[in-house]
């Protein structure tokens, strides 16, 4: 790949970028098949400005869920702005729109978590436990019916429910451990099962934490959820 970039791509790069391009190629393990960025969406309250879509929150592109989240953000923001007739008080509107960050969580956190989990699980790894995790995920999807349709519905945004996400995660973990223990739960298989649970938790739980456990699973406990439109004269 480095040879290809130097011989075929580099000559076409702008002179101003050439040195930086070559320097990036020569850095060990710096060449990526596809550039991507993962950025959790933390509330950013700035009167007069508002971020949605990938400008605010990004997940790995492996599932192609970015546009689904962006369009969902547009619908939520539209519904929040609909009752407003006066946009002159930027501070009051900014405080009211704080509810957006909680209202978007069911859709965004479900798709974000799945995308980032898929990326971590299917990244190249020599860890046997991670390889077992890969086989578990593929085997779970091959079960078909409720199992594959449930995951597909979440990936497509048709089932934006974090509780469904948690349910499928635990069912998949049980399925994976069961596959490892069959036909007889020997000590080695028990150890492999424990390692699988550890790897699954180490992949899933940090992503859930970054998305916000309270906002995902207990949105009604977040005060911003109950923000009401500011009163203003009609224009």
TrEMBL record:
Any one Gene Ontology biological process term? sterol biosynthetic process
Places the protein is found: Membrane
Squalene epoxidase domain ranges (all copies): 1-190
The catalytic activity, as recorded, is: squalene + reduced [NADPH--hemoprotein reductase] + O2 = (S)-2,3-epoxysqualene + oxidized [NADPH--hemoprotein reductase] + H2O + H(+)
Q: What class of enzyme is it?
A: oxidoreductase
Pathway membership, UniProt: Terpene metabolism; lanosterol biosynthesis; lanosterol from farnesyl diphosphate: step 2/3
According to its UniProt record, the EC number is 1.14.14.17
Please indicate which superkingdom the organism of origin belongs to: Eukaryota
One GO CC annotation, please? endoplasmic reticulum
Topology in membrane: Multi-pass membrane protein
Q: Which cofactor(s) does the record list?
A: FAD
GO terms assigned for molecular function: flavin adenine dinucleotide binding; squalene monooxygenase activity
List each coiled-coil range: none
Q: Which InterPro entries match?
A: FAD/NAD-bd_sf (IPR036188), Squalene_epoxidase (IPR013698), Squalene_monox (IPR040125)
Q: Per the similarity annotation, which family is this? A: Belongs to the squalene monooxygenase family.
Q: What does this protein do?
A: Catalyzes the stereospecific oxidation of squalene to (S)-2,3-epoxysqualene, and is considered to be a rate-limiting enzyme in steroid biosynthesis.
Report what the protein is called.
Squalene monooxygenase
Q: Which organism is it from?
A: Gossypium arboreum (Tree cotton)
Native organism taxonomy: Eukaryota, Viridiplantae, Streptophyta, Embryophyta, Tracheophyta
């Amino acid at each position: 790949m480095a040879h290809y970039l130097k011989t075929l791509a580099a000559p076409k790069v702008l002179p101003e970028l050439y040195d930086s391009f070559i320097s990036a190629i020569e850095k060990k393990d710096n060449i990526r098949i596809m550039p991507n960025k993962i950025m959790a969406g933390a509330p950013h309250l700035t009167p007069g400005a508002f971020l949605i879509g990938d400008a605010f929150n990004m997940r790995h592109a492996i599932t192609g869920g970015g546009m689904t989240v962006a369009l969902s953000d547009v619908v939520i923001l539209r519904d929040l702005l609909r009752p407003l007739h006066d946009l002159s008080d930027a501070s009051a509107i900014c405080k009211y729109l704080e509810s957006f960050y909680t209202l978007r969580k069911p859709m965004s956190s479900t798709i974000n978590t799945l995308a980032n989990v898929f990326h971590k699980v299917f990244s190249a790894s020599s860890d046997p436990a991670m390889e077992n995790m890969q086989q578990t995920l593929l085997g779970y999807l091959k079960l078909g019916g409720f199992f594959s349709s449930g995951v597909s519905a979440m990936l497509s945004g048709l089932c934006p429910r974090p509780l469904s996400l948690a349910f499928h995660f635990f069912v998949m973990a049980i399925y994976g451990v069961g596959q490892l223990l069959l036909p007889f739960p020997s000590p080695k298989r028990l150890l492999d099962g424990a390692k699988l649970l550890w790897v699954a938790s180490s992949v899933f739980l940090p992503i859930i934490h970054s998305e916000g456990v309270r906002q995902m699973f207990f949105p009604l406990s977040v005060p911003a959820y109950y923000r009401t439109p500011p009163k203003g004269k009609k224009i």
